[in-house]
Design brief:
The protein is of the alpha/beta class. It has 14 helices and 27 strands.
């Protein structure tokens, strides 16, 4: 029997409905709720598109272009009229049975999302299934982790495991790989590719990270101002094919950057407004000398007598796989962990034991939580006075307010921050941008940046990195930047710090990284990504030779961290 959503072909065979069919979909917000009569600009404006079984759709566009809105509609999270968005021939939102066929991952768990159970308790009997074991290896998840005691990045990976453990016909994935190193990211993408090729699943993947995606995606859906500017197969993306033929570096990233920047007016940076020059330094600005560190008494050392230094005005790219201890080192340099005297110093001052070092250093790696403060407007946090209860009231800026400087105004423009935003009512991505602005609003000598651009679109990411480049070139500030995203970093860094399993593999100027210069000479499309990829894969190959054990360690309530970002615990170093 043929249901109302199915059709017959000329031979009388039943045709299966398309995985996604969107017809003239318009969506507007009003007070956070959809209303047909809502006024104002449409978040989605007359969108129409159709994708077939087995498609891997790359969903791209600037922040606010409409990507997440469409994906959340597909995931049944927003109410829309019937007939405008159907999955497998059934109406999104209205057909609750779609929950068994569609997996949506875009709303991330909060710290107190549920009781502090372990991953094993969360997954239950499925823990021993081959699919689960494979996903745990890809995502580097440990069964003993407790959900409320691990880092945001580890919690995201646990949520991905929980979401992907059951087979679905459609996967709707909104920026899911921001906390994965390139090994895990590529492993997850290979897993999803197999889902489409072996089972015929359909995947919609929205991201601002374009490393290795040109050969993965079968289709592209690019949004611009609520409209689908481009909807085609990758083979029909002629602009990309031309860039490849011309030998352009990072061709997919270059094309996406070109399209995203068409939406924005250029925000020139007046270098005179950056602030005073960084103080001169005799010798290195930052020194790490034979530093050894363990997370707790009796635990193994995660840093093993590491030593390196950074000169004034250098931009140091910190690279390595998950677990290389990049975040641990940056947090130690930022004064967040207790260490013995004489092992780390900035501007000649001890990083932990001398509190005056704070006036020289900005550390950005611990992100604000939803209830971090009273629900202030962001402008109030930066010193504005709000008089909304008075007639004609609004936000006024005292002359000495941090948010009233040309520096802050430039940062607000490139990060697309609205000073009227209320901190507890905006998204995690918006809150991160506010925190970046607040941290960067005051000039410092040294910036310690731990994966700060994962929630930024290409425009904001490029603007922020150009700002930091000017900080080092003009003011002489020193920057350490740890990241897993490399498609935008060609030519940005002056130095490289390569870490592996808590040891320094290489610390030198980029000009001395011979493998990198060789890749450039060979005309490699993405030389930096290719080099880091080679190193990370080699590290995992060595780790694979070690004996594996699924023995769960409950000695610290499951809080033995894989990334050095776990919750409160005793610390020991020596």
């Amino acid at each position: 029997m043929v249901n109302e959503n199915q059709q017959m072909n000329v031979d009388g065979e039943t045709l299966k409905p398309e995985p996604l069919e969107v017809k003239n979909l318009t969506y507007k917000y009003r007070g956070g709720v959809y209303e047909v009569e809502a006024t104002g600009p449409a978040q989605l404006d007359n969108i129409s598109c159709t994708f077939g079984r087995g498609a891997r759709v790359l969903v791209a566009g600037a922040n606010g272009a409409g990507k997440s809105t469409l994906l959340s509609i597909m995931g049944g999270k927003k109410m829309i009229p019937r007939g405008q968005c159907s999955l497998l021939g059934r109406d999104a939102f209205h057909d609750t049975g779609l929950a068994g066929e569609v997996m949506y991952c875009g709303d991330w768990w909060r710290t107190d999302f549920f009781f502090n159970i372990s991953v094993r308790e969360l997954i239950g009997k499925k823990m021993e299934e081959p699919r689960c074991i494979r996903l745990m290896e890809i995502l580097q998840v440990e069964p003993s982790w407790r959900i409320n005691s691990i880092s945001d990045g580890q919690r995201r990976r646990c949520q991905l495991l929980d979401s992907l453990i059951d087979e679905k016909a459609i996967y709707v994935l909104d920026e899911i790989t921001t906390d994965l190193d390139l090994f895990a990211r590529e492993g997850l993408l290979r897993f999803l590719r197999a889902e489409t090729e072996e089972r015929g699943a359909t995947i919609f993947y929205a991201t601002h990270i374009f490393d290795c995606l040109a050969d993965w995606a079968t289709h592209i859906l690019f949004f611009d101002g609520g409209r689908n500017k481009r909807c085609c197969t990758m083979g029909e993306l002629h602009e990309y094919q031309k860039l490849v033929a011309d030998g352009a570096r990072c061709p997919l990233y270059s094309l996406m950057k070109q399209w995203v920047f068409e939406k924005y007016a250029e925000v020139p940076l007046d270098t005179n407004t950056l602030g005073p020059p960084a103080e001169p330094s005799e010798g290195p600005v930052l020194i790490v000398n034979k530093l050894t560190y363990a997370y707790a008494a009796g635990a193994k050392n995660v840093l093993k007598e590491i030593s390196f230094s950074c000169a004034r005005g250098s931009r140091v790219l910190v690279v390595g796989a998950n677990g290389a201890c990049k975040s641990t080192i940056l947090s130690i340099l930022g004064g967040k962990r207790m260490i013995p005297r004489g092992t780390t110093s900035i501007m000649g001052l001890d990083c932990f034991n001398d509190t005056t070092v704070g006036k020289y250093v900005m550390f950005c790696g611990d992100w604000w939580r939803t209830n971090f403060m009273m629900n202030l407007r962001f402008g109030e946090l930066l010193g504005a006075k709000c008089n909304y209860g008075e007639a004609g009231g609004g936000m006024t800026w005292p002359a000495d307010a941090v948010g009233n400087t040309p520096r802050s105004r430039h940062l607000a423009a490139i990060l697309q921050v609205n000073f009227e935003w209320k901190i507890n009512e905006i998204s995690d991505g918006q809150r991160r941008r506010c925190q970046l602005l607040e941290n960067l609003a005051t000039p410092k000598q040294v910036y310690l940046m731990d994966e700060i651009t994962s929630d930024l679109d290409l425009y904001a990411r490029e603007g922020l990195l150009n700002f930091l480049k000017a900080e080092s070139d003009v003011r002489g500030a020193t920057i350490l930047y740890a990241t897993h995203i490399f498609d935008h970093l060609e030519g940005w860094a002056t130095d490289l710090l390569h870490l592996s399993q808590g040891e320094v593999i290489q610390s030198c100027p980029m000009s001395e990284v011979t493998e990198y210069t060789e890749l450039i000479a060979q005309g490699t499309t993405c030389p930096l990504y290719s080099l880091i990829r080679k190193w990370v894969y080699a590290e995992y190959a060595e780790l694979a030779k070690l004996p594996k054990s699924r023995q769960e360690d409950e000695s610290m309530d499951g809080r033995v961290p894989a990334l050095g970002l776990a919750g409160p615990m005793c610390l020991q170093s020596g």
